[in-house]
Design goal:
With 95 residues, this protein is α+β, with helices and mostly antiparallel strands. Helices cover 35% and strands 13% of the residues. It contains four helices and four strands, in the order αββαβαβα. The protein has helices at residues 2-7, 27-37, 57-67, 90-94, and strands at residues 12-14, 21-23, 54-56, 73-75. A two-stranded parallel ribbon has the order 1-4.
Length: 95
């Protein structure tokens, strides 16, 4: 939504402040990791977590604004749950 709407010239509004953390995973990284996992011979596990880690919402917005000057991105002040999913991706890295 962030990049897609910005490219289309549509405003993007988040209910949360830019200091909120989210787990952003780039689709090409996800696809590459899935393809690589298919190449593992006799994996020890059948389920892996793929994640890029937590990043600030404001950081993602800054990246989009650098790539798309004039992107209209606004933030709100709604409280969040106060936690971020921090996934353990060690299995995928090891295998």
């Amino acid at each position: 939504m962030l990049a897609e709407n910005s490219v289309k010239g549509k405003p993007v509004e988040f209910p949360y402040p830019p200091s909120v953390e989210f787990d952003w995973t780039y689709v090409k990284d996800l696809a590459r990791t899935c393809a690589q996992s298919c190449q593992v011979k006799k994996p020890k596990h059948n389920i892996f977590i793929i994640s890029s880690g937590a990043n600030l919402l404001g950081t993602a917005a800054n990246y989009v604004q650098e790539m798309i000057p004039g992107a209209r991105i606004r933030f709100g002040n709604e409280p969040t749950l106060g936690w971020v999913n921090r996934f353990d991706t060690s299995r995928a890295r090891q295998e």
